[in-house]
Design brief:
It is built from four helices and seven strands. It is of the alpha/beta class and 159 residues long.
Length: 159
Amino acid sequence: MDETIETYEEAETRAAGVRLALSLPEYALVAFSGELGSGKTAFIRGMCEAFSCPEQVSSPTFTLINEYSGTRTVLHCDLYRLSGTEDMHAIGLSDVFAREAVILIEWAERALPLLPFPRYEVAAWHGEEDAQRRYRIRYVKDPHDSILFEPVEPFARPL
């Protein structure tokens, strides 16, 4: 799988998430990368709709990991606030990867050395028009095939 999708409103972004979700195996890891406001959470909201998760999906920026129950167990992680791999180990990210669930990770580029293979990757961009978003989706078996963005911020927090 390697495809690019353009959307122009949140409903289209959610529909793209539904399509990807319905194509996933029972347990899958989907790593999301993209700048703020590029629609990662809206895409994930669509994926959770496909799995009949009744909870209101929101970005778990402050809780770090949300678990949703539906036709599948979904673990939704947001790594935006973490400073590096030590923080990721501290929250038990490796335990998350071992779960029998669909695992959705926002800001996955921050965990590149920890992310297991195979995985699905979704790179998100703002389009040229205000409401336009672009998503590239790829199934990745090897680190050389990754489409995740390189981290643009240093992980260390200022003192």
